[in-house]
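Notes from hallway chat w/ T.B., transcribed later so I don't forget. T.B. wanted the structure written out for a chain they're using in a teaching module, and asked if we could keep both sequence and structure tokens in one place. Agreed to drop them here.
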Amino acid sequence: MAQAQPISFNRHPYADGSAKKMLIDGQWVNAASGKTFESHNPATGELLATVAEGDKADIDSAVAAARRAFEGPWSKFTPFERQNLLLKFADLIEKHFDELSTLDTLDMGAPLSRTRAGKLRVLGMLRFYAGQATSIHGETIENSLPGEVFSYTLKEPVGVVGAIIPWNSPLTASIWKIGPALATGCTVVLKPAEEAPLTPLRLGELALEAGVPPGVINVVPGYGETAGAALAAHPDVDKVAFTGSHLTGQAIVKASAGNLKRVSLELGGKSPDIVFADADIDAAVPGAAMAVFANSGQICSAGTRLFVEQRIYDEFVGKVAEFGKGLKVGNGIDPEVQIGPLVSQEQLSRVTGYFDVGQKEGASAVVGGKRLTEGNLGKGYFVPPTVFANVRDEMRIAQEEIFGPVISAISFKDADELVKRANATNFGLGSGVWTRDVSKAHKFAKAIRAGSVWVNCYQAMDPAVPFGGYKMSGYGRESGIQHVEEYLNVKAVWIKTA
């Protein structure tokens, strides 16, 4: 089959510099304030679109629309009808996938080689949730009360969901929130990140085309301090599903206290990726490298703390550095590019700031460590794959989430002590173990305090397998039946039959 040709900036149908409105109650409307903000291509600086800037007034309108839909027409949809609707939505996304993946590339910088590769996952998630729509059920429960009393449970939708997503994977993040909400019969107010709002808005168009009733999906772009904060604190929102930084997650928990709304949080990480001397080095080098360099390191579960057994440390770190040096950095619209830009000037300043921090703390940059400015790269927010060696556990680059293509390589000798060192972080999202020793793999898989442990691989994901964190990486799960349960209430029913 011939490969689809990439859509260039100049002819992309949704990134032509025009104005974009927000979706509320099935209608495309301007912000109540009339304010807008600009969305730019982080690889070139070119204007992609001018976007309506939502704030509290728009969130109020969207939540009211979601409540009307939840209590009105949407509540009459049967599980089978919700399933069919999700499948139709998935078919439309499949039809327009090249357009959507290219829009992700233009708006947040991830290379086409990454966004196009996400097709199976995006469609798999939506069709998995479609299957779950007809699998929701309660239980009959034997009780010990005297007399004839029958007891059972019902599973019911939580209600109006405020979904706040990050910029590092707009298409996937949107589906991760919309899928379980629609499967369970909830309604959604989706607040995209201001850095990358275009794909979620385009999804809103496809949702209407699929027949999603007005108010079931609302998309309100805007800033976290205004639109996001209003959504998190809104008294008529029943649940907030958030993906982003742990600091924002803490603020959302505080804001949720007003009506004790349910909250699920998928937050940051500083994940350990452990390479033992008995590992398959040929597999571990690219695996450990791309556990961090993929998406320019802008992945919450990236294996940024690379623990390498002492007797192979120099060899392994050198090979990872050479691998990183060989990756092609550039505008992600080029199908051959493997590393795109960081998403914004703010993120560029953050990552390059950590370059300075690492060197001041005594770490040495084996490769990378400086912004790329040659030729067209100077127009965007580019940094190269970077590997810091001679890193100690207490260094900031080993403890703080950088969210860039930066590996902190740490040596270890004592495997028993390593468990304590691997867990010596405030986060607990992902982790990796590279070894041929099955007993060692099981030991560390159990001992590491993280929501995911990948053995001889990294970042493997499947719609049926739950994903989430420990500690400051949040609570709740995404994917799997556990994710669907996050959007359901359990009601107990008692019937005296005598």
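Follow-up for T.B.: The chain has two domains: 9-267+474-492, 272-462. Might be a good example for the class.
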